[in-house]
């Protein structure tokens, strides 16, 4: 269990020397208990205190990595139950299954389809990060050759899914250097699987039918010296999975129950692409660390990947684009200049609508700390001075010869002051970005 502030205080030197930046040792202990300070900030702590406190200060959910180099993925190390309390750190890894019963041609086709599941949204790249090879054949040789083919033909991380230690050992003989995730150890295979995982320095999935069994299983795995564990529950309906994922999260983060302090994995294998999207997105929303799906339909991935991207963005820091002058098409001295804010969603919406208009234009992106037009204006992050500064900084007056600036319709109220500040004609654009093509073609001309 977690140490309280008073427990921690008893282990500190109690000199109130302030070297940690806190006025007293008690204040530091309280911060440490709430995980708002690091033990390293106290240079005076004894070795004994460090030993006790570092164990207690360890994150309530372990960080687990698999894959290597650019293909390495990270799971866990979450600290809060709700995103608004702080933020979620390591986005759910979406993986796609590949059966070891596929023919050579079908296997290559499926790997190519999975490799293509990469998308760009509001300037960020999202996509499938892992392939799960499934030992449907029950044969070690087929499993190993499929795993090797995936390793050869894909840049994604690898998950080896088999209940048979011999199959896992055979696949690792071909793929261990890529540090795959091994799935799974069960009650009857835990010793053999943990031994293989430890020998190959790979993380291991513990898979059980209930949370109690799972907690026992992770303790057994840990007793064999393996710390990198992922939790998985089997034989449950989607509703039961969601309930249990929530329970695991509460026990890990709120109760600091170490046997469940690991990221989780769920497998979605039933239903068509739409049903899998629905199930996977629900699991992503309810804390699942890895979701393995069976579909390769591109349309099925956008909702789940977008949900993950949104949930794992920092609620305190909206996704932003660089504030600068962007050129859309090949604008010249007669092209329109339109300003907007550096909130990513706003910028990319405006950008795509201008592209759709086929009117080459400049977009002046003003730094509003990632807030949208109305939010920025109401918070005084968008005013005539800020726009005038951005115009000067980007030397807009030397890019065009017309001295006309199109402003978002929602901040038409700015036009008078902006005209005075710039000495330019202010044209009030449409309120909705989707009306920009019509505006540029009919009003701007
Ligand atoms: Fe106490 Fe250590 Fe902070 Fe000094 S640095 S006040 S000893 S916690």
Largest sheet: 8 strands, parallel, barrel
Strand order of the largest sheet: 3-6-7-8-9-10-11-12
The assigned structural class equals alpha/beta
Low-confidence stretches: none
Helical percentage: 25-40%
What small ligands are held by the chains?
iron/sulfur cluster
The radius of gyration over CA amounts to 27 Å
Strand content: 15-25%
Number of strands: 17
Q: For the residues shown, what is the average pLDDT?
A: 94
Shape by Cα distribution: flat
Number of alpha- plus pi-helical segments = 16
**N→C terminal distance:** 69 Å
Any overview of this molecule?
With 445 residues, this protein is an alpha/beta fold. The chain contains 16 helices and 17 strands. It has helices at residues 5-11, 25-33, 47-57, 104-115, 140-153, 165-175, 190-199, 211-223, 238-253, 273-285, 298-311, 344-357, 373-378, 384-393, 415-422, 436-444, and strands at 63-66, 73-76, 93-99, 118-121, 124-127, 130-134, 157-161, 181-185, 204-208, 229-233, 264-267, 290-293, 325-328, 337-341, 361-366, 404-407, 425-428. Helix 1 (5-11) packs across helix 2 (25-33), helix 4 crosses helix 5 (140-153) and helix 5 packs parallel to helix 6. It is flat, with a radius of gyration of 27 Å. It starts with a helix and ends with a helix. The chain binds iron/sulfur cluster.
Summarize the structure in short:
This protein is of the alpha/beta class. It has 16 helices and 17 strands. The strands form four sheets. Strands 3-6-7-8-9-10-11-12 form an eight-stranded parallel β-barrel, surrounded by seven helices. It has a five-stranded mixed β-sheet with strand order 13-15-14-16-17, with helices on both faces.
